[in-house]
Each structure stands twice: as C-alpha cells, then as structure tokens.
Description:
Layout: E1 3-9, E2 23-28, E3 31-35, H1 41-47, E4 55-59, H2 65-68, H3 71-81, E5 91-96, H4 99-109, E6 118-123, H5 139-143, E7 155-156, E8 165-169, E9 173-181, E10 186-193, H6 202-207, H7 214-220, E11 225-226, E12 232-233, H8 235-238, E13 247-251, E14 256-257, H9 261-265, E15 271-275, H10 283-288, H11 294-303, E16 309-312, E17 318-319, E18 329-330, H12 332-341, E19 347-349, E20 355-357
Parallel strand pairs: 3-4, 4-5, 5-6, 6-7, 13-15, 15-16, 16-19, 17-18
Antiparallel strand pairs: 1-2, 1-20, 2-3, 8-9, 9-10, 9-14, 10-13, 11-12
Helix pairs in contact: 11-12
Amino acid sequence: MAMDVTFLGTGAAYPSPTRGASATVVRFEGESWLFDCGEGTQTQFMKSHLKAGRIAKIFITHLHGDHVFGLPGLLCTISLQSSPATNKLPVEIYGPLGLRSFLCRILELSHSQLAFPWVVHELVPTPDQCPAEERKELSFVDGDKVSSEEAPGKTLRLDPLEDSYTLVDNSQFVVKAFRLFHRIPSFGFLVEEKPRPGKLNAQKLKELGVPPGPIYGRLKDGATVVLENGTTIFPSDVTEEPLPGRKVCILGDCSGIVGDGAAALCYGADLLVHEATLDDAQADKAKEHGHSTPQVAAEFAKLCKAKKLVLSHFSQRYKPAGQTGEGDVDVMELKRQAERVLGGQEVVLAEDFMTIDIPMKKVTIASPN
Ligand SMILES: [Zn+2]
Ligand SMILES: [Zn+2]
C-alpha cells in the first residue's frame, strides 16, 4: 500500500506567496487525512495534485489561526463540490476543546450548511500545556448547543497510563495524540500502521501436509487449524514474520513536550515532522513565543531515534531554497543546525507541495548467530 505525506503549507503565522499556512496531508489508498488547515489551504489543494474531496479525517494541532482559519472555507467548498450525501461516512474532525464551538458558530453565522455529515471530537488539554497567564476557562464550550453535527462527537481525555489520547483504532491504523507546550495547548499526532500479516511459506505448508484451499486464508488471517489427520497447525508454523507498520508523527507548534508520552509514541518514527519557526540564533525569542529552533527539533528526533526529520512551520522570513532575494535569510542554515545535532543525518526542509513517500518496511531477517 502506497503511503505519502504532502506539505501544502510550511509557513508560520500567516500565508504568503512562498509559504502557505500550516497544512499537511497523509495519503494512503486514495484516502487523505489533513493535519492542520491554515488560511488558504483550499487554494493550496487546488494548486497541488491532491483532491480536497478525498479528505476523510482532519486533525487540528491547536487553535491558533494559522492552523485553523482555513477550515470553515475548505469544508464549505468541499460541500459545494460534493454530490448530495446519501450514505457517506462523516468527515471526522479532531482537535482541542473549543474546535466544535468555533466551527458550529462560524457555520451558523455565515448561514452555511455542509452537504455531507461531519463530526468533531475534542481533546481536553491539561493545564500544563501552556503558560499560566494564557489559560482560559472555555466556559461557553459545554453550554454550546449550536451543533450542526450529525452525531455528537466524543470528548477525549488523557489516558494517564499511556500519557496519550487514542483518536483512531481501526483494522489498518492507530492514531494517538500527545501533549505539547505552546502559547495555547497544542498536540502532536502519531499515525501508526498496524503490522501486516506475514506471507505464507509454501515450502512449510507442503512439508506439514496442509492441503491448498480456504485453509490457507484462515492461516494467513491468524487462525489455528486442525488438519483431517489431527495435526494442529499454528499460523506461526507456516507464515513469515509480520511486516512492521509505518509510523508518521506530526507535531503542532511547541517549544517543548509535556510528559513522557511523546517520546515513547514517536520512537523509531519513519517520518517526524517538527516545527522550527526560527533559527538557533533566536532561541530565546522562539522559546518566548512557544516555538522551536532546529536544535530543539533535532534533539527530540535524536531522543526518539526518528529515521527522518522534516522541519516545517518556518517564519515567513525564511524563503524556500532557491527563492531567496536580497536581504533574505538563508533557510539552509536551519538544515545545517539540525544536522549538526544529528551527527550529519540528513534533515529535510519542508516546502509547499513537497511529497515524501513512506515505503513499506521489509522484514529484517535476523542473522543465525
Ligand atoms: Zn503556527
Ligand atoms: Zn501556534
């Protein structure tokens, strides 16, 4: 199964002609999941090879405008372009507490009605995810009855044992959220593919006298079978090692992580997308605004042994490589800063419309000794 990640917006604070506001798409088998939806995301979709109508799930890291202002417009345009819903599954939207109210109010005030079913699932942050002076009591949230949702969404709370939130758990994927520290509560998301069953080993099937037929399918699906001669065959007798699933981690704005959940979940990630709003020389300013520098991002990637680090969410002062004009700051310096921490391991700078393939993993055959 092909799986890839496309960056539609890699800029911080606001969209510009060279960098859109935050939006990242994870795609597999024709389905798209959108992570953040800054202003202008719908036009970024139109300029790309992706189709907004394929979005099945949306994940919002935090409620700053550069991550969410594009959402009502995008949903309304998808609605205009979609055929009337009959048996469509709802578009599932996940994000911090307050997101439902934001969407319901804006759709109500603009007299917009979406032609497809949708539902918002809200994550309840913990108080340590932002500075004390920024904490707001969202008193209006619970009393808000202006819901145009088809079905009421879930309220997701932190699982203290795992230090994470479970958002999706289906036959193919698990999606979890973990806590980040920012000016307002922010989250990171883990998308982990479930292990794929190993192939049947024809030689072993033959040796054990398993007759061809539906029995093969049952063994491949993990069922134990008893042959007519009374021999019990366990799936592990005749299948190769399961193929490990792929792991993509996308972090929202942050100056650091909260708790131990993030590092544990992101361990061994095939792709880790981390913000680097400013370069290392401006570390104090970055921290003050709740942001990271390449060093912070690379240290986290090192901690969780990520296979590939992608930096994104750059201040608009960093034009994409090759588009720098006089007086512009060279974004390549951010790459160098992160690579120094990672001992030379290559770091990728995200650019709008860049797509990264996440190849399927091969089983590593353990050496005999
Ligand atoms: Zn931002
Ligand atoms: Zn932010």
